[in-house]
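Most newcomers find our protein records easier to grasp once they have seen one. Each record describes a single protein and holds just a pair of labelled lines. A learned vocabulary of local backbone shapes supplies the integers on the structure line. Nothing more is needed to start thinking about how sequence determines fold. The record below serves as our worked example for the rest of this section.
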Amino acid sequence: QVQLVESGGGLVQTGDSLSLSCAASGLPFSSYGMGWFRQAPGKERAFVAAINWNGGNTYYTDSVKGRFTISRDNAKNTVYLQMNSLKPEDTAVYYCAAGHYSVQEYNFWGQGTQVTVSS
């Protein structure tokens, strides 16, 4: 059974940093591209960042470039999202997802972790 478990969310102030983790189990982690998505209240889920299976390529939505960093540790079956200079518009539920050798199509999703940035 595949599980993706996000952690690290919380309530922070504008300008603060937060680090999210997503621990994967039940799948050959190094065969999967990993992505982070977010869903703000009243909005559709949106792409945030992705990293390919070996960490050699990363991708970001424009609004987080220069502030967020995605990384992975295949030995720990974990993907991370370091979020700096947080803004109120970053408030959302953050989800990680796994795609078999893909960063465009995802097979598995986590349950999400709430990030709230106060102004």
Notes: The chain has a mean pLDDT of 97. The chain is about 0% helix and 55% strand. The CA atoms of residues 95 and 112 lie 4 Å apart.
